[in-house]
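MODEL INPUT / OUTPUT PAIR
PAIR INDEX: 1
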Amino acid sequence: MSVSIVLCTYNGERWLSQLWDSLLMQTRAPDEIVVRDDASLDGTFELLTKLRDAAVARGIRVTLARNERNLGFVANFEAALADASGEILFLCDQDDIWHPDKLATMLGEFGRRPNLLLLHSDARLVDENGSDMDCGLFEALEVTRRECMLIHSGRAFDVLLRRNLATGATLAFRRSLLNEVKPFPREWVHDEWLAIIAAAIGEVDCLEQPLIDYRQHGGNQIGAQRRSAWSKFEDLFMSRAQALRRELQRMRELLSHFARLDAARTQLPHAKLVARAAHFDLRLGLGRVSKWRRLKPILREARSGSYAVWGNGKLSMLRDLLRRD
């Protein structure tokens, strides 16, 4: 299987050389590295032109492009993916370090499992200097054993519909998925959109081993950090209206996209999506009534099982009861 690494850059001059070295040190070399720079203001693009020579000398094709204006990281990834030709596409961030066996390990899974459409892995969190933060990505996301087992058993859609666990820097997928995901919607990040569509129409799995060093610093677009007990306590009282409206909009975009896909493949995911949208619509309405009047609908929704299926159970119930709106 031919392999393309799809790398998007923006003002990444500081860490780019270290990442590039880790790509060239893979035990299974990539066939192609596709790079699209999002109108960087530092020396990123000039550095890329120099780094390209080292890859070409190893027989790796390099496609290098630069946007005339800044598109944002989601649109930039969408454009970069259109330039890739490999059968298996690996997403890549500019500031991480790939472990030498990443490509070989993930390609082995795709080779053994012809129905596997998308695969992602755990990662080791490191600080801006590359020092181990003594925390894995799955640990920071508080991924449970049950969630992992559901994903391994073929029920990734159930997990990913509740929350995204597929981080782009750890993600690879078959090129055929590109035909199913376009266009990338405004309310979804590229990695979660790829993962949820893949899980709706095919097989998605995760590897519970770290295959990259995932660098955490002030410039991360998203990043991952272990949450403190105090931040979790403060979270109980935060306003939820904006987040709930956004989630409803995301569900509508996903429903609209399902309507364009083969109905036979998305019938069951469609029903689950409708149920999830109804749950969040009810929760949004709770903010328009006083706290004491929220208890009855919250308990009714809990008895239906919706808080357990689409939220965090009792924690989501408590949030809805205590939140400011």
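PAIR INDEX: 2
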Amino acid sequence: MRQNPRNTSRKLFASLAVLAIVFVIAAIAQFTGALRKAQPASAASSPQSTATQPRAVFGELPQAPPPQPQPVEKTEAGEETARSRSEATITARGEIDSLLDRWRNTFLRGDVNGQTILYAPKMELFYRRNSVSRETVRREKSRMMELYPKVHRYDISDVKVESHRGDEAVVSFRKDWDMNGDRRFSGAERQRLKLKRINGDWKIIREEELKIYWVRRS
């Protein structure tokens, strides 16, 4: 059977057209892939990209600046504690001064009971005697007041709080006196008292002479 030359030409032309289209699609795909590969490289090499990325250091990460020290501020609780301690010290000093006033005034009046109650039931030291009772102090005070019933002067001055820790305190002062009975007795000395808070009240638990400046009996 003999083929028609015109039909053969049409088939050949259609095959060439399809082949041309395939080549064009392949060329477009290849060009697109090459363009995508080229874009990251160009972006990485651009100055703007380099400037925005931190420079890599081997084994290290970019470090944040060290924190700046903050000024230490006194808290309200600390201020309240300091204020409470200061107020307690002022209150204690006032109570100690009040005891010294009573100690002086009761002797001036010859009030042996008022004088004795300012001492603790048990004394550490009473002049040169250790561990004496309040009753012993009473007898000594009573004997002194009977020997010299007229007290012209009994003053304390230059009071110094040598120590104050909680419920204990030590004070020293100058004592000047002038009294007489059958004989006159006067003088001046440096004296020390140790105090202790017992049942809420300050009591004398130690009384001693530190230095005698002068004494006269006539």
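PAIR 2 NOTE: The mean pLDDT is 80.
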